Amino acid sequence: MFIVQGQGTRWRRGYGGGEWLGHATSTCVRAAPSAAVRRPDSGEGRRGKPVSRCVLRMSAAEDAPTLATTDPVAGSYGAAQILVLENLEAVRRRPGMYIGSTGPRGLHHLVYEVVDNSVDEALAGHCTQIVVRLHADGSVSVLDDGRGIPTDQHPKTGLSALETVLTKLHAGGKFGSGGYKVSGGLHGVGVSVVNALSVWLEAVVYRDGQQYRMRFERGDTVQPLQVSPDDGSAVPRRGTSIRFAPDPTIFTTQTRFDFDTLASRLNELAYLNAGLEIRLVDERATTPIASAKAANASAPEVDADDADDAREDGRRYHWGADAPAATTSASIDNGHGVVTPPARERVFVHRGGIAEYVRDMTNGKQAVHPEVIYLRKEVHEVDVEIALQWCSDQFTDIVLGFANNIRTVDGGTHLDGFKASLTRLINSCGRQKGVLKDSQNNLGGDFVREGLTAIVSVKVPDPEFEGQTKSRLGNPEVRSVVDSALSTELAFYFDQHPQVLTDVLEKALLAYQAAEAARRARDIVRRKSVLETSTLPGKLADCACKDPRESEVFIVEGDSAGGSAKQGRDRRFQAILPIRGKIINIEKSDDGKVYRNTEVQALITALGLGFKGDDFQPTSLRYHRIIIMTDADSDGAHIRTLLLTFFYRYQHRVVEDGYVYVAKAPLYKLETGGGGGGGGGRKRIQYLYSDAELERAVAALRSRHPDARHTVQRFKGLGEMMPEQLWETTMDPARRTLYRVNVEDAVAADQVLTMLMGDRVVPRRTFIEQHAEELSLEELDL
């Protein structure tokens, strides 16, 4: 699904230097400006006062950048200055080397590492159930019914095997061939790293009728191995429980685990391991809260500033179709207005494995063949699983690769082998059936894969991942293994199902013909790649800065909003790209129609997006912050949705790599004071972003100053705002609210786009009927 979040990295800088401030913990980062600077377009600003600013640098990297210096470092440099980090101290010193970052992604990676160990037990045939529990104290536990980590003395370390695994790097049963055939919890990152980066960790092993328990604090053993009889049940238990609390001195951005983020990954693991049951329980919801009855009886006074806090509390929104989590118990009111809400629980089990995964991904689409093609073969101890389905109303390919249950975002040799084998086989079959003539060139891989949704999952005994985050599989032998497995098994399938082959070939030929029709339109876009001419597409008002990392572009609707944005911006690093009305829905359009559209041409050329289907090159982007800034109404929401659809379908890596943002524009201006009657005579202006915020702010004002005068202005659009207002509410990096758009669940994102933006009416109507109660008719243009 799409995740729109406002967490980022906080910088304070002038125009020629920077100071690291740490990570932003709220949506709108109000960092103190380093100096008052003057906007070059207005000198001193329109009221004669210097306008302060600070650049909010919200990049994909979550660790502090290294700032170069030319000043010599004082002091001696000898053997005493060579630092040797023992045991887990190196992990605490450089956590980013082991978990990728110390932001939200790294935080959740801790849970994944513990879960990976349990999944490895399942791959070895010794585990059927995993329970992940989010506790009210902020800790998380992972319990499985596997064999339990061994507790006998390790021959090399002299410690128990349990303590060795938890305190020594590169220690585990997965480096040799005795404990596990394949494993995902490898590559130097494991439960010992989780131990090092936690305030405390408790490990409990149920094995041989005994209970073994140890406790650690920041990687150090504080409670040695304790053994006691396991009297927990009539049937002897087995398995491992790891419970830990992340260290806030390491994870300075946040230490609260997100339920939906964990649910997405655990659901994915359940797909990849058919029959494995994974439960996710959130006990944090059991914190007592005031009941609706009690809240209505005595509504608390809301300070005017609380409206901002309330807005910032909602900094994370899911754009997806996830059903509400199941509950394990009913809410209980104790009779005094205090309610204990039920814990959330989700159970993930997919007995159809990756074939069910693909079927769910293509749900709501028009399948070319009714059944998902599922292939499985083991070659040279490498287990290959492939599931495929082509859809006639899908114009891109979605191919997800996994190696030992780890999503290889950057591909690898398994996907290279899959694509090469599939292209060669389809062309060979096409010539055998006479669909492709001898005089015709082979169909390219893009045409063969158009409309394809596929999962390629391999289990490799000794995986070689490139990069600490395991983003690409590097084993060269896997390419030939996948190539061989696909060519033999898929050829056999086509022999048994000749109509499926015919339908797939027709789909590929249609893709080729559409591409030929679009080629001339692509050439038009290519010829317009020089942006320094006077005929800039979309009336782009460029910025002075030529460094994409320091530049940002606002995509706004119409000339009115574009005019205010151009006048209110800081032209040194902010560009403005107005678009005329609503762009075409790329979900329903072929490539020819897309490239002929004027507004789409403007977006492609101005932003440097390249061409659809080409490998994404971040170096071609002209701005590293692409900010969608639309009106705060239903039309603005529709334009925003069309733009998000365009970015994800045309060049999905732009979204996945964190270059796309959404600006939060105010809906109301509340002005108080300035003329007797209470309020102290001091004029105060407050910008509010929803009807609820306005109601709370007005109620708070009346409770404090019943006679205070106030006026409310509703902004019908960004074009109504003065340039100064647009700057201070939506564009000033020191005061604005930005949401970064991420994709955490590719399945949900694809399903939502297909359902809401595709050709089929019935799924969209069903969605509207299911969510009708959440709609506000006043916000709709009827």
Structural description of this entry:
The chain has 782 residues and is an alpha+beta fold. It is built from 22 helices and 33 strands. The strands form eight sheets. A nine-stranded mixed sheet has the order 10-9-8-11-7-6-12-18-15. A seven-stranded mixed sheet has the order 14-1-33-29-28-26-27, with helices on both faces. The chain has a five-stranded mixed sheet with strand order 19-20-23-21-22, sandwiched between helices. The longest helix is centred in the middle third of the chain and has 30 residues, at 498-527. The model is unreliable at 5-74, 76-85, 286-340 and 527-535 (pLDDT under 50). Made up of two chains. The A chain is responsible for DNA breakage and rejoining; the B chain catalyzes ATP hydrolysis. Keywords: ATP-binding, DNA-binding, Isomerase, Magnesium, Metal-binding, Nucleotide-binding, Topoisomerase, Transit peptide. One of its GO terms (cellular component) is chromosome. It is an enzyme of class 5 (isomerase).
| Helical percentage | 25-40%
Distance between the termini: 29 Å
Coarse structural class: alpha+beta
Number of strands: 33
- Average pLDDT for all residues: 77
**Which spans of ≥5 residues are poorly predicted at pLDDT below 50?**
5-74, 76-85, 286-340, 527-535
Spatially, the strands of the biggest sheet line up as 10-9-8-11-7-6-12-18-15
CATH class placement of the domain at 93-252 and 257-288: Alpha Beta
Give Rg in angstroms: 29 Å
Query: Please, what is the CATH homologous superfamily of the domain at 93-252 and 257-288?
Result: Histidine kinase-like ATPase, C-terminal domain
- Biggest sheet record: 9 strands, mixed
| Coarse morphology | globular
Please state roughly what percent of the residues sit in beta strands, choosing from under 5%, 5-15%, 15-25%, 25-35%, 35-45% or over 45%: 15-25%
Based on the structure given, which CATH architecture of the domain at 93-252 and 257-288 is correct? 2-Layer Sandwich
- The third-level CATH topology of the domain at 93-252 and 257-288 is Heat Shock Protein 90
Q: Count up the helices.
A: 22
Cofactor: Ca(2+); Mg(2+); Mn(2+)
Domain Toprim: 551-666
InterPro entries: DNA_gyrase_B_C, GyrB, HATPase_C_sf, HATPase_dom, Ribosomal_Su5_D2-typ_SF, Ribsml_uS5_D2-typ_fold_subgr, Topo_IIA, Topo_IIA-like_dom_sf
Family: Belongs to the type II topoisomerase GyrB family.
